[in-house]
Amino acid sequence: MLTSLLLTAGFALMGAGIGAGIVAIGAGLGIGRIGGQAMEGIARQPEAAGKIQTAMLIIAALIEVVSLFAVVVCLLIALNGNLTF
Amino acid sequence: MVRKILCLSALLSVFFLTFSEKAFAASGGDDDETSFIMHHIKDSHVWHFATAGDTHIALKLPVIIYSTDRGFEFYSSSDFLDPETHLFGKEHNGYYINEYDKLKSIDENRWFIDLSITKNVAMLFLVLAITLYLLLSTSKHYKSNPNKAPKGIASFVEPIVLFVRDEIALPNIGPKYKKFTPYLLTLFFFILIGNLMGLLPGAANLTGNIAVTITLAIITFFVTNFNGNKAYWKHVVATPGVPLPLLLIIVPVEIIGLFTKPFALTVRLFVAITAGHIVILSFIGLIFVFDSYAVGVASTLMVVFINLIELLVATIQAYVFTLFSAMYIGSAVAEHGHEEAHH
């Protein structure tokens, strides 16, 4: 029973799912921080709001792409999860 | 405390035991949700637009093969389709298309080049036509109405061109920006229009194809390194002001750094666009998993929202690719005076 548990790819699928969740936490933390600092910057100097907003969007896109690297890896594991060893 | 841990582990093992065999039933097969998503992301020899009942509204694209013994061969991909099941696998003239949509020959040792017009190639031609139309009609307008305010399509393209020149090319490249602005404009418009066209329903995923993005990154790599001046190469192979033991570590890192830059460009654009398409397709696939009207309404609203975000992502990714290319070119052609400021 234990060997069949180890041999099934259920663990791989679970790993992929948990990995995708952790990636979401990472992206949320990163982009949330950027958003928070941008808000602070705009609050301190409202006339620079346009520039700060543009820079914030660009950095958010970069961070989001890093999280998408990991999502693609999790997707690859999940879609090939029915392989047995 | 011990009781809590025991209860938790009992629950966890029940979870494992119940669901551990289900992994096999989950994927594989043609009617599966993941194959629906992959079918829309991947390249294919047939451009499938829609399915109305039993009829597939699809464009069977040409298959072009070059080999040394037979020369050029032109087929339609319908020759490789099984007439009843409409699936690939039928053998024709010594070739067949396998389940990964790859053209293979029956004789394993035969060398041939697959030059087929696949879905992404046809999409590339379409994006090329739109980009050429936009930019050439703009330049024609300027040639025929010199020194006048732009009207029509030129007034749409001009702010974008000025944006690329003044915000991306000039600050990052410096005095030599005029030589590289045409390349940066081509890059920006091609990626922007490729991204935006890919969001239309029925369109092919062009910039989410890693072959396309790696080609753009390789072109940037060549433009950067063929225009690198002496200070740039000195910085890579013999970084000034560094003692010899550190140099032995720094030089391999710098040389690897030469290659990680186009790699990052490739993967960034590919992943951003493909992941966006996968999210949209997953939400639409949910409607068919649940088979309910309520989920249909909710899913459609989510998809509209995510499509708006994808419009933003399409523009930002075009801007980021061009910006990083400009920064790499700028560091390659930076003047010696810039180096003096370091030490």
From TrEMBL, chain A:
It is found in: Cell membrane; Membrane. The chain crosses the membrane at residues 6-34, 55-79. GO terms for cellular component: plasma membrane; proton-transporting ATP synthase complex; proton-transporting two-sector ATPase complex, proton-transporting domain. GO terms for molecular function: hydrolase activity; lipid binding; proton-transporting ATP synthase activity, rotational mechanism. HAMAP family: ATP_synth_c_bact. Key component of the F(0) channel; it plays a direct role in translocation across the membrane. A homomeric c-ring of between 10-14 subunits forms the central stalk rotor element with the F(1) delta and epsilon subunits. F(1)F(0) ATP synthase produces ATP from ADP in the presence of a proton or sodium gradient. F-type ATPases consist of two structural domains, F(1) containing the extramembraneous catalytic core and F(0) containing the membrane proton channel, linked together by a central stalk and a peripheral stalk. During catalysis, ATP synthesis in the catalytic domain of F(1) is coupled via a rotary mechanism of the central stalk subunits to proton translocation. Belongs to the ATPase C chain family. This is ATP synthase subunit c. It comes from Lunatimonas lonarensis. The gene is atpE.
